[in-house]
């Protein structure tokens, strides 16, 4: 540990923990050991040769969380504003490189004003080396960013590359350019919280995956996440010895989740809760794009990735944001061999000029790409609506799902009956005298086109099951797929996902 006397009081005055306190709060007791504490900057510009910057403003080292090794770094805002210079960046980059070699997660506590201006291009070099190691580590070891203060300019891009970003109310701030620059360029008065606070990035931008009320709550959330995910590529998570599942209660509940009215919304989390181990669903990006739900859960003690449309919000439609949310999560699960369970109730992609101009074609294509590319076990359950391109995109058999199950009330078609009749019988629908004919055709469409029986006969779904059978089917399917391997990929360097 460094011999430097930490300026703890200065952080406490701001209602924040000091860097070393944060590390100790996050890691198991007495498990952290520091490296590179003697590192110092070599800059001589603007009087920097006379400045003592202990450990160059960032504490780096290794520790344990839940008894398993992790690499941790914490920027110290009390030391030169946590600014990143060449040595500062190199320390973090070297830590990440060591974590890749040691096969353990990297957790960054980010609290930095950005690049150290006095170091000029050397500071940019420090960022570049850090970004490079972030990319090298991606898909190799999990990378978690905790935003523990202001992160401006280049300081936001390292978290932006990592897998999960944790934000804390009234403490976290991320922005490319701060309020002063915004005011000078756009003549706009805006606070740091309004520009890039925890709420903004959790609800509006989707940059943050988790939001906490306090630092202590945040660290507990990080520790919880690490209990769900593999700590390096290739690690197999051993099923928990004991898991709880109230079969009688949940079997009864799942049978009553769907409303009688097919257009009425319901919270898909009720279905998820009935299928996964008791209280095991750990949602990711809960506040963003709420028409979709993603997160980790346990089924018979084993981690799975859950993806679902949520009819409680906008009917479960896919839009640009929900498409990004789903695609990113699917790719993470695939990178670390976490099986995927998808619950489908989707009436389509959100129509209209706003979504078209934002690029719904490009964003929606990400979902198709992510599911098609994923080689992990993939099980889908169609609970109700599965229309058009959204049906295909949500892990249909056509995109490589291993098993697709449908509940008896599932509706699988190009579109719903009302929309279909509006195209097929537009004239008749305008004529009141043809009301009986239109009603007849509507029922005919529902009976012969939308029924899951057609999809079952075509081998597009594996079976029509009652809601009460859902967990059992998923358990048996995942057990059968436990040794799944795909070796039919064409020879290529990599594909080109529509970003």
How would you explain this protein's 3D organization?
This protein is 37% helix and 18% strand. It contains 20 helices and 16 strands. The chain has helices at residues 8-12, 19-26, 86-102, 121-137, 157-161, 179-186, 192-196, 198-203, 215-226, 247-254, 268-275, 320-335, 353-358, 360-373, 388-393, 417-424, 426-430, 435-450, 452-457, 470-480, and strands spanning 33-35, 58-65, 68-75, 106-112, 143-152, 164-168, 173-175, 210-212, 282-284, 292-299, 302-309, 340-346, 378-387, 403-406, 411-413, 463-464. Strands 1, 2, 3, 4, 5, 6, 7 and 8 form an 8-stranded mixed sheet that branches. Strands 9, 10, 11, 12, 13, 14, 15 and 16 form an 8-stranded mixed sheet that branches. A hairpin with a 7-residue loop joins strand 9 and strand 10 (292-299). The longest helix has 17 residues, at 86-102. The model has no long low-confidence stretch (mean pLDDT 93).
How are the SSEs placed, and which strands pair?
Layout: H1 8-12, H2 19-26, E1 33-35, E2 58-65, E3 68-75, H3 86-102, E4 106-112, H4 121-137, E5 143-152, H5 157-161, E6 164-168, E7 173-175, H6 179-186, H7 192-196, H8 198-203, E8 210-212, H9 215-226, H10 247-254, H11 268-275, E9 282-284, E10 292-299, E11 302-309, H12 320-335, E12 340-346, H13 353-358, H14 360-373, E13 378-387, H15 388-393, E14 403-406, E15 411-413, H16 417-424, H17 426-430, H18 435-450, H19 452-457, E16 463-464, H20 470-480
Parallel strand pairs: 3-4, 4-5, 5-6, 5-7, 6-8, 11-12, 12-13, 13-14, 13-15, 14-16
Antiparallel strand pairs: 1-2, 2-3, 9-10, 10-11
